[in-house]
Amino acid sequence: MTTIPGPRAGAPTAPGGTATGGHRPPGAALRAHAESLRTQADRLRAAVDALAWTGPDADALRARVTALATRCDRAATDLARSAELV
Questions:
Q1: Is the pTM of this model over 0.85?
Q2: Can you say how many angstroms the Cα of residue 35 is from the centroid of all Cα atoms in its chain?
Q3: Which terminal Cβ of the chain has fewer Cβ within 10 Å, N or C?
Q4: How many other CB atoms are there within 10 angstroms of residue 63's CB atom?
């Protein structure tokens, strides 16, 4: 059986003794992750738009990267909604 270590000495804790990671508002981490995902989606789209590569393999790559960017956007939207609820 693996023992799970407790929070580091001096780490801020929430009621019940769980580590909070700081004193941020409840939804701040979710909003930060949402923004990070949106930024990544934008980077993916920019990178795929900048490709000079052509042909069926290039088209397949573009389609996969575009789909991944869309998934990042959807996840970001869901995280932002969750942040509003906490």
A1: no
A2: 7
A3: N
A4: 11
